[in-house]
Write a structure and sequence with these properties.
mainly alpha; globular
Length: 220
Amino acid sequence: MPGALKKAEEKLRREPRWPPALALLAIMGLYWSLPERLTFGPSRTFLIVLLVLFAAGLAFYAAGKTTANFAIGIVLLSLITAAVIWALGALIAGLPNKTEPPKDLLRSAVAIWASNMLVFASWYWRLDAGGPHRRDLRPSHSEGAFLFPQMTLQPGSKLADSGWKPGFADYLFLAFNTSTAFSPTDTPVLSRWAKLLMMVQSSISLGSVAILAAHAINIL
């Protein structure tokens, strides 16, 4: 058994997780598109910090140091989440004085909304059922913070997959529904930490869509 576990871990290290990595790079690109007033100090400096952490996380992952990779991922997501909340607050604070031109206001609202969806998809992917590494080591996904439809299918069903595990696309779909419907649709939430994260995500989405985008369209 230890030998099989070691082989499984080595196989996982050879399989890079491109979707979540691309999601983080997309968030950084969206952050770069924001006006300087909405960023943490000079946007270039903050992006360099994020890129350094991103590179460190990849290095730890390639070296098989999953605990360090997990810790770096938490720090990176925490900084990005704080930056998204800061940008939303700064944008709302500038509404009465019309600090941002209408086009910049609309573009910033879209960037914040998209960043919010991607960062919380990354949170769910990072934290659910102990994280991606622990999920991949299990034969199937039978418990976690979310009750995916595949987990409720009967073993004899033609649609059932005994070895099914959620991928990043499943968490992205969950985050997209939360950002658009302000609630999960087909996936019930079981964990308290997941409910709290969804409340934060829905609040950011509501601020960017209902307040900022609507205001920008009205004054165009």
